[in-house]
Amino acid sequence: MVATAKPTKMNKFEAFKSEKDGLAVKDELEKFAQLGWEAMDETDLQHRLKWVGVFYRPVTPGKFMLRMRIPNGIITSEQMNVLAEVIERYGEDGNADITTRQNLQLRGIRLEDVPDIFLRFQAVGLTSVQSGMDNVRNITGSPMAGIDADELIDTRELVQQVQDMITNQGQGNYDFTNLPRKFNIAIEGGRDNSVHAEINDIAFVPAYKEGQLGFNVLVGGFFSAKRCEAAIPLNVWVAPNQDVVELCRAILTVYRDHGLRSNRQKARLMWLIDEWGIDKFRAMVEAQLGHTLDTAAPEDALDWEKRDHLGVFSQKQPGLNYVGMHVPIGRFYAQDMFDLARIAEVYGNGEIRLTVEQNVIIPNIPNENLEAFLAEPILEKFTLEPKPLERTLVSCTGAQFCNFALVETKNRALALARELDAELELPNKVRIHWTGCPNSCGQPQVADIGLMGTKVRKDGKTVEGVDLYMGGKVGKDAELGTCVQKGIACDDLKSVLRDILIDKFGAKSRSF
Ligand code: SRM
Ligand code: SF4
To answer: Which atom in ligand 2 lies closest to the alpha carbon of residue 398?
Structure first.
């Protein structure tokens, strides 16, 4: 392929994208499979494969991660079985994590198997396309969509339509494969801001305008190592129909064509909004759309605190229930996924839902099936009533698989939560989020207590530690937490957390 002339200020990512679009690797997977990953071009291996969701992991060379797209976090038992079969063949290397974007990532994948895996995905309507690098990530929506009696807008179809527009029905869409940076979209339909709307580049939040339900639109929310910002109002209201899809298309086009590309640390959408101001940004979006937009309704309709959906709940459909199950630190093994697919089919309608808290929901269980459902052995592992700290725990991948990580997260987070749950009694939920480095994939800024991996000096040695965040508020009136203490060695963390839980969250020691 002919290299285009490179402007002097082009960073290395822009340079390789202009040489060959990342999506081009989609047509080379057979070749890579035969060649073997060791012989591949470095940029194809480490970067471009992410355009089809395949992530080379320097921590586990040869064992790749595969990031799916699960729009609105909804997956069928048939699809879940296919994903379970994919990881089953990798024995101990095979597992899957529920992500903080209501999505699944598979591990242990061998490159030579990817062409076959993709054929199997296609057969059941799954795709992993455009799920990494400078693409739009999994689109989140309320995990209760269509089953919550109190919901305002059912987001399922809209989320699917936006994904189809961006990915060309999952086949890949060159229109949106060279954005200046990653991009997040969330469409909330419930009253409790279940998706953390405020931390997305575009968020649709239910709002009434002259009695009609639609969405207010927020833009520019993001976390990065350098800067974290909550999304700000675009001062626009849209009806819950094709207008949502077209607005996403217009914003993405404006961002693609005008977003800042020279410095990768300043390339997320908010940096462009800063440069232009929100009025010019809106005017550019309207010019792209070819018409003006409605101004926003004064107040959005979010009026509930956030729910975690763990337990048994009646649906809006009489006689049907959904059951929210806790998945410790979001980790599945193949057998878990087969079991979930089976119980979803036997007792429900085969549907399985994922949450941004890294848990799972089985909906559409008739009253008469509930008793037998609740007696299934998998509910001993994925319980409905976990201990309080374990219940709300969220963690990013961390050092086990992620080369950016400064600390091990998931296993440490779980062990610590279990120890503290055994020692303390808590009057209320305390949401603890772990993230292994300042990239903030585990969203420490939305937590009551956020822990961000760092390195600290202790007794003359460099050891794993965390910076402590507090004050994150979710649901209506969401606010981002901030760093309140830096550099706590992980060895000292238990006593620090114990004190905070007692002093600030009313915990009582069980030994008293
Ligand atoms: Fe993330 C990069 C994992 C949600 C901000 N994130 C990465 C990479 C791909 C780095 C890498 O190549 O190793 C991590 C893959 C590790 C692995 O092997 O799993 C990674 N991010 C994750 C996941 C799996 C964390 C989890 O355990 O749930 C989440 C996958 C979501 C998905 O399904 O697509 C994940 N990442 C997030 C979020 C949270 C969110 O979207 O609500 C954020 C903060 C919000 C945001 O993006 O504005 C986030 N990830 C980042 C960043 C910083 C972005 C920036 O603008 O600087 C990076 C680094 C980058 O892109 O350069 C990053
Ligand atoms: Fe990896 Fe850091 Fe993201 Fe955790 S926060 S998954 S350590 S990039």
So the answer is: 7
The reply to whether the predicted model has a pTM over 0.95 is yes
Q: Which residue numbers are catalytic?
A: 67, 181-182, 436, 441-442
- Closest ligand relative to 452 C-alpha: 2
pLDDT per residue over 339-361, tens digit each? Answer: 999 999 999 999 999 999 999 99
- Per residue in 247-292, pLDDT (tens digit) is 999 999 999 999 999 999 999 999 999 999 999 999 999 999 999 9
Instruction: Output the CA 377–ligand 1 centroid distance in Å.
Output: 33
Q: Mark residue 395 as left, alpha or beta (left: phi above 0; alpha: psi -120 to 50; beta: remaining).
A: beta
Instruction: Give the number of other Cβ atoms within 10 Å of residue 328's Cβ.
Output: 20
Q: What is the pLDDT of residues 293-324, one digit of tens each?
A: 999 998 899 999 999 999 999 999 999 999 99
404 lines ligand 2 (CB under 6 A): yes
DSSP notation for 78-95: HHHHHHHHHHHTTGGG-E
Q: Tell me if 269 CB under 6 Å of ligand 2.
A: no
Q: What angle do CA 423, 428, 431 make, to 5 degrees?
A: 85
- Catalogue all structural domains in the chain, each as residue range(s) with its CATH number: 1-18+129-299 (3.30.413.10), 54-125+308-385 (3.90.480.20), 390-509 (3.30.413.10)
Beta strand 424-425 with 508-509: parallel, antiparallel or unpaired? antiparallel
The partner residues of 55 in beta bridges, in order of sequence, read 65
